[in-house]
Amino acid sequence: MTSADRLLPAEARARPGSPLRLRPKASASLILIDRSHPSPHVLVGRRGSGHAFMPDLYVFPGGRRDQRDHALPFAQDLNPTVMDLLLRRCPPSMGASGARALALAALRELYEETGLLLGAASLSETPYRPDLSSLRFVARAVTPPGAVRRFDNRFFATFVDEASIDLQSLRESDELSDFRWLDLAALDSVRLPEIVAVVARDLKISLESDPSLPFGSDVYTYSNRNGQFLRSRL
After folding, report:
1. Which end is more exposed in the chain, N or C (fewer Cβ atoms within 10 Å of the end residue's Cβ)?
2. Residue 154 and residue 141: Cα distance in Å, rounded?
3. Is the pLDDT of residue 15 over 80?
4. Count of structural domains, the chain
5. Which domain holds residue 126?
6. Helix 80-87 to helix 95-114 angle, to the nearest 10 degrees?
7. How many angstroms separate the CA atoms of 151 and 22, rounded?
């Protein structure tokens, strides 16, 4: 087993003889940070046992970017520094609209999977226009070849208090259940995919360096080459 394979739980690896050249799909996740504790906590939920990709593991809310995400309305745009970071090492064709669509996908998935909204207590505002201005871009990870699903995932992060999130709206869905506020100092308390644990550990380091998590904080990228796991700064 290569080091890249170890980033995948056994259930997420393709069976022998399965196609290994799946093209990664653009996706995004949102890490909600609760800084009301001595050590920051982040929201994770358990994926159902029927999922083909990472069943029964705890993950951050998120999912694949859809075409509709390009047209979703928003109240305030991403911080310019975040936009610049998102566009680095990306084809020019993605452009600002494609980068923004990743952030909007993360917020759409957050609502669909948890019932939580960014910057609003309800959907009474029509159309709902989320505020993207508090989002930080903290990581990018590409699923190694050999998985039953492959994603080119961007991880965004924001503070619960800064983003005006009403946690009373938190509810389980078909995608995620058994929500936990995971202490970044105790990541082994739930079963995480290795890549989620890696992202969480690097986020912990960034928060220790500066608890405000500036918009220009280090962004880590995770990929693999010739079966070897690669971690670098963007």
Report:
1. N
2. 7
3. no
4. 1
5. 5-16+24-233
6. 100
7. 9
In the numeric block, the tokens 């087993």 are attached to 1
Cβ neighbours for 198, distance < 8 A, ≥ 6 positions apart: 7, 222, 231
Q: Provide the token pair at 27.
A: 């996706």
Phi, psi of 232 (to 5 degrees): -150, 165
C-alpha closest to that of 137 among 119, 155, 153? 155
Between CA 190 and CA 194 the distance in angstroms is: 12
Q: How far is CA 79 from the centre of its chain?
A: 18
Residue with tokens 């924001």: 158
pLDDT digits (tens, 9 = 90+) for 159-185: 999 998 889 889 999 889 999 999 999
Rg of the chain over Cα atoms, rounded to whole angstroms, equals 17
Rounded distance between C-alpha atoms, residue 10 and residue 5, angstroms = 9
CATH assignment of the domain containing 105: 3.90.79.10
Structure tokens given for 68: 């509709």
Asked if 42 and 31 count as a contact pair (C-beta separation under 8 A), the reply is yes
